[in-house]
Write a structure and sequence with these properties.
This protein is of the alpha/beta class and 260 residues long. It folds into two domains: 183 residues, Rossmann fold; 60 residues, Orthogonal Bundle (Helicase, Ruva Protein, domain 3), CATH 1.10.8.100. The chain has ten helices and nine strands. The strands form two sheets. A seven-stranded mixed β-sheet has the order 4-3-2-5-6-9-7. The chain has a two-stranded antiparallel sheet with strand order 1-8. It is elongated, with a radius of gyration of 20 Å.
Length: 260
């Protein structure tokens, strides 16, 4: 019997109805598939039944990696590494459809890394079908002027179109987590703001949302050397709070910051 490791944030999806809904989000026949954290292979099995062209599994846990190798043999390629230490841009010479029940403890780090490392001209994936802790998913899909809106919302919506697929009850996992989950669908945007360095967007949002309940006057002046002219020209009221600025305002501020 395989025991989930709390240190790796392992919770294995066992509900067949939920698994079926996930793999039917997008057509995968004859496509290249990447699955992150396959665990015991419950989702993997259903992916293979859809006759994909190629299936790559990334599993950090060596015990699970060996189990998956025995279970699926030559039908999959298994990478026994930490997803955060892998250069996703060179995993496959064709774009991948990605499925992932992401570990709760590093899910935002994984998504942020992927977004910030996206190639401007060639995106390594065609679609992402990812499961997050519901609270995190709510932050990703939130709109400005709402309590969940924050840096993750701004970052994710910069390069990706996002759609909520379904909520998943904690009872659908073993061991049962303390929280519910949500499956999100991501598709790369064709048109987006281009930056000299995407990490500047991460910096801008991190500083603005560090004190999300306070006015943006202090973080703005910290970033723009006490020069209020840019805010004036953009029509930004510095007495607002970070959640009151929409996506486009943060993207425009990042571009202005890069030309300082």
């Amino acid at each position: 019997m395989i025991r989930a490791k709390k240190s790796l944030g392992q919770n294995f999806l066992i509900d067949q109805n939920v698994i079926n809904k996930i793999i039917n989000v997008v057509e995968i026949k004859d496509k290249n598939i990447l699955e992150i954290g396959p665990g015991t292979g419950n989702l993997t099995l259903e992916i293979l039944r859809k006759n994909p062209k190629k299936v790559i599994l990334i599993e950090k846990d060596t015990i699970l990696s060996n189990l998956l190798e025995k279970k699926f043999q030559k039908n999959v390629e298994i990478i026994n590494k930490d997803i955060l230490k892998i250069n996703e841009n060179i995993l496959c010479d064709r774009s991948l459809i990605v499925f992932g029940n992401l570990p709760y403890n590093i899910s935002t780090e994984i998504l942020s890394k992927w977004i910030l490392n996206l190639n401007k001209n060639k995106v390594w994936f065609s679609y992402l079908v990812l499961m997050f802790q519901k609270e995190v998913a709510d932050r990703i899909i939130s709109k400005f002027d709402t309590k969940d809106y924050g840096r993750l919302s701004v970052l994710a919506n910069w390069r990706l179109k996002i759609k909520k697929i379904l909520d998943v009850n904690a009872d659908c996992f073993r061991p049962k987590p303390r929280v519910d989950s949500t499956v999100l669908f991501f598709e790369p945007k064709k048109n987006f703001f281009e930056f000299k360095n995407p990490k500047n967007l991460e910096k801008i949002t991190r500083i603005f949302f560090m004190h999300r309940r306070k006015m943006i006057k202090k973080p703005y002046r910290q970033l723009f050397n006490n020069d209020d002219n840019i805010a004036t020209k953009m029509g930004i009221d510095l007495n607002l709070r970070p959640q009151n600025l929409n996506f486009e305002t943060y993207y425009e501020l990042t571009k202005k910051y890069e030309y300082l």
